[in-house]
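User:
I would dearly like some help making sense of a protein record. Take your time, and here it is.
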Amino acid sequence: MMKIELETGGSVWKLLVAEGDQIEQGQTLFILEVMKMEVPYVAPAAGQVSAVHIAEGDAVEEDQLAMEIA
């Protein structure tokens, strides 16, 4: 199980995958808006999204758990 944690605070601009989706390594999972910049988060490995802990529009904090991939 891989946990995707946020490297910085901001707001969730776009969520590109949902629970149950099969993903490929390097695929963009979601995009944060941080100080007017778009910061994409990509999958570190292929797998299946087992849990999504964020939603579009959420204000998020550094080290917050965003997703889990099995």
Observations:
- The chain has a mean pLDDT of 97.
- The chain has one domain: 2-69.
